[in-house]
From TrEMBL, chain B:
NCBIfam families: sss
Topology relative to the membrane: Multi-pass membrane protein
UniProt keyword Membrane present: yes
Taxonomic classification: Bacteria, Bacillati, Actinomycetota, Actinomycetes, Streptosporangiales
Database matches in Gene3D superfamilies: Sodium/glucose cotransporter (1.20.1730.10)
Residues passing through the membrane, by range: 12-29, 49-70, 82-103, 124-149, 155-174, 186-204, 240-258, 279-306, 326-358, 379-401, 407-429, 436-455, 470-490, 527-544
GO molecular function: D-glucose:sodium symporter activity
Pfam families (UniProt xref): SSF
Originating organism: Nonomuraea longispora
Cross-referenced InterPro entries: Na/Glc_symporter_sf (IPR038377), Na/solute_symporter (IPR001734)
Name of the protein in question: Na+/galactose cotransporter
Alphabetical list of PROSITE patterns matching this protein: NA_SOLUT_SYMP_3 (PS50283)
Keywords, in A-Z order: Membrane, Transmembrane, Transmembrane helix
Amino acid sequence: MTDIRLVIGGLFLLYGVILIVAGLAGEAVNLWTGLAMAVFGGAFVVWSRVRRI
Amino acid sequence: MAVRLDVNLLDYALIAIYFATVLGIGLAARKHISSSLDFFLAGRGLPAWVTGLAFLSANLGAIEILGMAANGVQYGAMTVHYYWIGAVPAMVFLGIVMMPFYYRSKVRSVPEFLRRRFNGATQLLNAITFAVAQILIAGVNLYALAIVMEALLGWPLPVSVVVSAVIVLAYITLGGLSSAIYNEVLQFFVILAGLIPLTVLGLIKVGGVSGLADKVRQTSLGEGGLHTWAGTAGENPMQAHWIGIVFGLGFVLSFGYWTTNFAEVQRALSARNTNASRLTPIIAAYPKLLIPLVTVLPGMIALVLFDGWGQGQDYNNAIPLLMRDLLPNGVLGVAVTGLLASFMAGMAANISGFNTVFTNDIWQAHVRKDRDDGYYLRVGRIATVAGVALGVGTAFIAAGYTNIMNYLQALFSFFNAPLFATFIIGLFWRRMTPWAGFWGLLAGTVAAFVSYVAYKAGVLNFGTELNASFWGAGVAFVVDVIVSVAVTLVTTARPTEELRGLVYGLTAVDAEDDALAGDARWYRSPVLLGTGAIVLAAVMYGVIL
């Protein structure tokens, strides 16, 4: 079935980007959280591509 | 007093994206379900990190998160006992000692193990108590979710109940246990993404760890709010003695819950081989050690930032108050999503445990035997729909009789203690007879019930609710042991050959070795990792003794 790592990674990348955009327009908390989520999501996507099931 | 959050379109967009993903997982999982084993145990094909996080998440419901933060306000640092002694040792014990028996016997559920070790009557007794408890707990979960949604977002109660029930129903009916487990893993990360910024911002606001410690000393908890064991021979915020904490919480309640609760064990049974199933609770133990940092710690932060606790301010409002005051729109949406997701994950764990036990241990074992696999897959789907419908019904009953539901939930927490007694004797004493399994479990369960009713009626006085649960579980455990031993002495045991693979010291002759390449490496050793988790718990206790 679909690799869960890709789903987690994709969701966190999307959330990260949305929060970074919101953060650039306003609150710094959104920016930092968004960056952390994007990095985390990216790491999961890379993991799922490097070691396939 | 309700806490209302100021959510905007951005927050709702984040919530909507999450639930679209959840339903997508259900649809994707559906394509891979061709047998009842796929539906009930995810085809026994999941890696240990997935089942481990699901194991943790099945217990990390929103009631747990809000409740542990509430305990953090009320008792301070002592609340970590629920994690470090009240969970981790039992999780490690499950992984090292008990999982080989559960997994290698190829049973699909805890009641099925009881049938193999004892008899059909023991299976049915456990299956019925478990099934009823899961439905009631699912209903209570759903009601709690609706209360929180009504307070935080202003959604009417019936709307929250029906919408969340439909989402849970959709993804479990479609994808079975794999979609429940995948959502639990996803939910684990989302709730952390909401709670970590909350804790960091809270800590900054109170002046870091030292600032928090200074301010906690000035509250009603005083110095006692900063220690775990230091005051447990005398006065402490929990009014609990260390003997009660070690034996009541750390042994009877905790081992009972973590080693025999099928909603938990089911996650480990879905792992891909014996080693992965043993690693499941042990991998979960590591994040479990750190969860208090995002539940108990925010509770203590809320204690010093807000006042009126226990009078005008409900302890359960700790996390919602921090969310309201510290999180801007955006991160707030992530935190709300995390809470919603964890409510649903908790309910999904109850429902997926229920449908398996109902189909396997009640319907297939005692009502309609020997049908084809497709028949039981259909029964499983129907049981899911019925379970959710009953849960919704229970939620509406709970809305009318809040106290009764609280009592029932407390009562079910006692039922695991006698079950653990039956298991532990049955595993280590091969002479224990089938009927000793049944009568011991029945007597222990009745004893749990009687001691709880006697406490509530005022006949027995244990002081606090916490002490009542320690003692109630302890009494149930002892009664189970006495009755099991007594009945064993007057009934006949099963022949040794039938018990191979089910009791300690009698290995199954035909069990094939299912080890995968790499299982021998140190980082996949259950004993090593399990010991590491216990040592880490001890070290962390050393930091806040």
